[in-house]
Specification:
Blueprint: H1 2-14, E1 23-25, H2 29-33, H3 38-47, H4 49-68, E2 79-81, H5 92-104
Parallel strand pairs: 1-2
Length: 105
């Protein structure tokens, strides 16, 4: 998609139009998906909650910094946040502890 749309995005911004597509943010949900998977992370929530929280914070900070350092960042007004596995599979308390903080960040 970027190969086809990339040249047009450059033309749009050069003509003064804002960049409509800025990037993706995945924060904590990436931890549930890769590399260990949901089952392993759920076990770690009980076994090593401090390490899960630390990893989630690093992922959130990396995501935010990579978006802000993007060469397109001055013209970005839209970031798509992929809300994957954020509800329904963990308790409300787990959601508030392990998922919400980086989503809010």
């Amino acid at each position: 998609m970027l190969q086809v749309m990339g040249p047009y995005a450059g033309m749009s911004s050069a003509s003064g139009y804002p960049v409509a597509f800025g990037g993706f943010a995945k924060a904590r949900s990436i931890l549930w998906e890769y590399p260990a998977g949901t089952a392993a992370v759920m076990k770690d929530i009980y076994r090593r909650p401090d390490k899960v929280l630390a990893a989630c914070d690093k992922i959130a900070d990396f995501t935010i910094n990579s978006i802000l350092k993007s060469p397109l960042s001055p013209g970005i007004f839209l970031i798509t946040y992929l809300y994957i596995k954020g509800d329904g599979w963990m308790s409300q308390k787990q959601f508030e502890t392990f998922y919400w903080p980086s989503l809010k960040k």
